[in-house]
Amino acid sequence: MQYLFVGAGQAGTQIVDQIFAHDNIDLRAEALAFNSTIQDLERLDNIPQDRWYGVSESDGLVSGTVRGFEERVTGGFGQTPTKADRVMRRNEGEVHRVLDEVYEGLEADPSTLQYAFVFLGFGGGTGCGIAPHLAREIRSYASSEMDIVSVGVLPNTKLVNQGAQMDNDEDNPVEKQIQQCENTVFGLDNLEQEVESIMLVDNQRLALDVAESNEYSDYNRYVADAFLDIVLGAERERTDDALDVQMMDVDLQDLIRYIDGDGFRAGYATLGRGVRQTESLLGYLLPGPFGRQPIQETGLIADSIDKQTIDEFSPSDATSAVAVAQAPGWCWDDKEVSVGSVESELGYYCKNVNAGWAVTKRNLASVTTAFGFDREDIDRIAQIERIAEREGTA
């Protein structure tokens, strides 16, 4: 097992579940789901129950296969990450027990774990409360040299931004958004000490039209596809050495190097994906060149930038950028797609860029980009911090 995908809380487990809907991802990766609400775990379609772990205030981490699991995992932490944080502090050794169970079942050596990915929602109580502990304990269990990347979902703050007023209703959506901002700051401050990079997904972009063809039914799937393409794309797809092209390749270590932090705290990144069909209906019916469609490479690149996973995105504020382009072999042969063009476009925004390529058997061409930032240069985080600070001093 080379990769460990860990979902923390509702948002995190849902994204990991979407990732494991992809064929063959489980051949080199293992999924774990940690949540304090059994109803959310029961909604998972692609993570088996023996990889569920309930987070219980009374019992710590509870395996999904334990008798009485439903009675022992009785509810969440009420949008209060400090409660989840306290539970994990009392039960940190339990994470090693969980990993022992996983590796013994796989008959694998923990030293084979090269990368871990921790997914969470910053606005809730469970995800941002437990994720820093999970990251720290995974590293201490496997290797201090391993790389851990987190994918975190930022809350929607549109009501607060629009100046909507609070009332005395405890379920008031404005008050809820303010609380989510406070949770986000808590989560970011703790998590960035434990991981190499934090990739940001913004619930404020839920209205994003993720594909012209409406290929993706929801935002989680868009995020899952973009993440797999940029993180595992160049490794997941087999490249064809016979192609008459001169291109660079990007592996996972290269990606992390371009978006990691300064060694003391994490770097930050956003994701975006542009995708086009390479075959018309005729191309599916007849072999060969029939039905092949022009790719419009510039449109792919533009879409991947326009559809970044964070609101108020400004590529010119980025410190680095990395991309993976994927297309069928004929696209590379016919120069329909060029890594040089992708790299040149990224270089317009920042100097530290890299681009990789992969040949895919799918009838899709895609360009997936990740832009690296310092925390201080991300407007959305600054906006969330201002909301949290304003409420804290009110």
Automatic annotation (TrEMBL):
<feature type="domain" description="Tubulin/FtsZ GTPase">
    <location>
        <begin position="4"/>
        <end position="206"/>
    </location>
</feature>
<dbReference type="GO" id="GO:0005525">
    <property type="term" value="F:GTP binding"/>
</dbReference>
<dbReference type="InterPro" id="IPR036525">
    <property type="entry name" value="Tubulin/FtsZ_GTPase_sf"/>
</dbReference>
<dbReference type="InterPro" id="IPR003008">
    <property type="entry name" value="Tubulin_FtsZ_GTPase"/>
</dbReference>
<dbReference type="Pfam" id="PF00091">
    <property type="entry name" value="Tubulin"/>
</dbReference>
<protein>
    <recommendedName>
        <fullName>Tubulin/FtsZ GTPase domain-containing protein</fullName>
    </recommendedName>
</protein>
